[in-house]
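Allow me, if you will, to draw on your knowledge of protein folds for a short while. The matter concerns a single protein, recorded as an amino acid sequence and a row of backbone structure tokens. Could you please explain, in whatever detail you think fit, how the structure tokens follow from the sequence? I remain grateful for any guidance, and I place the record below:

…
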Amino acid sequence: MKEIELKYGCNPNQKPSKIFMADGRDLPVTVLNGRPGYINFLDALNSYQLVKELESAIGLPAAASFKHVSPAGAAVGLPLSDTLRKIYWVDDDAVLSPLASAYATKDKWLLLLKLIRYWDLISRQCIISGINSVRVFH
């Protein structure tokens, strides 16, 4: 493929931009699904660069994600403990490759941070309300 037309926002009257190789060669990327925008390519390229640097530096498979050119998650492929398997909702009998472990870890850190922030808000509200204990059922 020589060029990819890029989606830009939701304005149907705006002329789309495109990416291409300056020397006319085929692009070194393939879009598998959807119509990416410029920011999607920046996120993908940043993720690729971070994964390559992590793999080179520590010799383990790695996974990364960016959201609007800001790092949103990164992890390396280490075996998951029983506790982490539960936190990341990995089935008890699932056999994960190191790369799959990295992906499981990368995606769930953001959820874990949100849960911690949510729990902090609940705790603060309980203190303000005079409630001195909160029971958690699981």
Summary: Helices lie at 38-58, 82-87, 98-129. DSSP finds three helices and four strands in the chain. The CA atoms of residues 42 and 120 lie 34 Å apart. Confidence is low (pLDDT under 50) at residues 126-138.
